[in-house]
Amino acid sequence: MRAFVRVTDRHAFDTIIDARSPAEFEIDHIPGAVNCPVLDNEERRIVGTLYKQAGAFEAKRVGGAMVAANLARHLREQFADRPVDWKPLVYCWRGGLRSGSMTTWLRMVGWDAQQLAGGYKSWRRHVIDTIAAQAPVLPLVVVCGATGSAKTRVLHALAAQGEQTLDLEGLARHKGSLLGALFDIPQPSQTAFETAIAAVIEQVDMSRPLYVEGESARIGRLNLPVPLVGRLRASACIEIQASLPARLDFLLRDYAYLGDRPAWLADQLEPLKPLHGKDTIAAWQAMAHAGNLPQLFAELVTKHYDPSYARSQSKHFHAWQARRVLTADDLSPQGVEAIARAITAIATAQTPATASDSARDAFQS
Which of 36, 92, 144, 237 is labelled catalytic? Predict the structure, then answer.
């Protein structure tokens, strides 16, 4: 029996099929879905133009032939090895003709295909509702620290040690700083970013800490959802206070690739002119063109990042005065693992003395 399925029941299916065009799929899609378009990008444009210029009948006549050809191709190729008990869930933009056509054909073959009620629009509503309901009650522990304190690496170490983490910079594909863009890796769309956040937080065990890096309300060109920003600002903080030599050494390792893009690096400094003046920026840009990263990073950290950090933390994080502090001189991979263990000890109401020897030796709280 054919039925319209709710978003919350999607996990009961073997495969989730996105029947929209590749361009729509690229913007955002249900996590884990495979794209099997019934109309490709150009075909969708043609049908849309026909609908406006010649009416619904002509659009459906021409589009129907395209849909039939694409469905036949999917049956010959992507669906050729599916067993008789395969159970796919199909969706399009609104749960209309595109997903309806594919569902009908799959059911004619003999598979128990079902259609997602409301299509992608119902998924989008689910994402918004999940963030609105879950973000304000997340058990966040915010890991803070000045630029170069290896916060993201600490977050990765926490995840490797079995802790719950929300890696916002990873989901945003951006390091969150002035120089944080990743070469040849574009940021996702705003909707895809929110989908990725919702996919993480709906799996959170509310009885355990969820570690997140202290972020501004914007990462690159993406905005954090407002309910999440509110929770981030109100949550408990643990600050990593790493020594300046350790931070600069870490930055030179973590941003070493910038030495291969001197022109790009110099261009990224241009927006800082109103803050630091033309002469200072010109000097920094000369360092970038010369590949003098040690001097450039030292200047940026001490004259730009650190003053900004000092001004912003107490304003952004309401519990800043009550934060716990870890001092560190070692931001090597081993040092980062020790920081992660010490953070876990603090967040679970243990004292640093009950943490591992390496954490106890490396930090004071």
Answer: 92
> What residue has token string 């599916």?
82
* 17 and 149 both lie in a single domain: no
Q: Identify whether residues 110 and 151 lie together within a single domain.
A: no
Domain range for 345:
137-362
Q: Are residues 35 and 172 in the same domain?
A: no
- To the query of whether residue 144 is one of the catalytic residues in this protein, the response is no
Same domain, 214 and 92: no
Whole-model pTM? 0.90
Q: Taking 70 as the threshold, does the pLDDT of residue 364 lie above it? A: no
Indicate if the pLDDT at residue 363 is higher than 90.
no
Instruction: Match 């970038």 to its residue by tokens.
Output: 288
In tens, the pLDDT along 220-266 reads 999 999 999 999 999 999 999 999 999 999 999 999 999 999 999 99
Instruction: Give 275-299 pLDDT, tens digit per residue.
Output: 999 999 999 999 999 999 999 999 9
The string of pLDDT tens digits covering residues 73-95 is 999 999 999 999 999 999 999 98
- The reply to whether 129 falls in a domain is no
CATH number at residue 170: 3.40.50
In the predicted model, is pLDDT for residue 64 greater than 60? yes
Structural domains in the chain (count):
2
CATH number (domain holding residue 17): 3.40.250.10
Residue 256 lies in a domain: yes
Does residue 191 sit in the same domain as residue 334?
Answer: yes
